[in-house]
Amino acid sequence: MSLLEVSDLQVKFDTPEGEVQAVNGLDFSVRRGESLAIVGESGAGKSQAVMAIMGLLAENGSACGKAKFKGQDLMQMSRQELNKIRGCEIAMIFQDPMTSLNPFLTIEKQMAEVITHHQGLRREEARAHAVEMLRAVRIPAPEERVKQYPHEFSGGMRQRVMIAMGLLCEPGLLIADEPTTALDVTVQAQITQLVGELRRKSNMAMILITHDLAVVAEICDRVLVMYAGQLVETGSIEDIFYRPQHPYTQGLLASLPRMDRLSDDELHSIPGNPPNLMNLGGGCHFRERCSKVMDVCKDDPPLQVAQDGRQSRCFIEMTDGEIASTETGDSAELVGSGDCEKESTETVE
Known about the structure:
The chain has helices spanning 46-54, 79-85, 97-100, 107-119, 123-136, 142-145, 155-167, 185-202, 213-219, 237-242, 247-254; strands at 2-15, 18-31, 35-39, 61-69, 72-73, 90-93, 173-177, 205-209, 222-227, 230-236, 303-306, 311-313, 323-327, 341-342. It is an alpha/beta fold.
């Protein structure tokens, strides 16, 4: 049974230049204890998809669709109802540890606020729990460090604090949005390993949003590849890394540096630029950059679904695994036509 099930998620933004369709008909699910990676280029809609689910869109954003968490639709909840779930049953780690913490409050006060709000513990109990979680994320001398302010921590240590805050209430789902982007390579590896270990110990589900495929290979079970606001391919780690079906996924993997390449080999690059999200139109959104483009790509590509659950949105027939169904690609027709209710919050990303 799925812990989170998202269907037909649409996210739009009103801008002075026009309406931007950031996410267009996205479907995915996450099972208990499973780790799902959402990957793609900047602007693919990865972060905005989870922001919509969490009710954290910018004021000019609107979203519609369904996002059922434990059977309850998050998209239909009021802000008060969402506040009971955010930070408790669903926790989120943001991509910039430098600005995610309040510089005017000690780490203890910020962590204690989460615990007292969701669990109603007394101050002494909250402090003890905060120290315990700092120790769990390997911050040295947590009894002393918990009294300090964010500026007294390095970037890597701040991210560890953010992870500790996310795990305070033992959430069923952890959403990590580019958790290692602002960190150096050595610290990135430490944080990646830490997140993977903590997830396995607690058996919580996780959604990892990233463009770093090396991180994905290390700690995730499944991958969802997004392009121009749409799902273009999804499958297990083995399927995506060893048997990619969609030309975009193949291009992403070919652009990775590899140890078995000759030093004078040039890295592959995907030609062109992503499409304008204000004027997507119909047809395959990747066709202008695709080396395997065909005349039929002017039409909306079908979403092929294999019996093992992997999917590919392309006219090229999947070569690995028997296809269970093929859905015609009509999501492009939804651009600008959905009756989405405006959802305004105080958080602007």
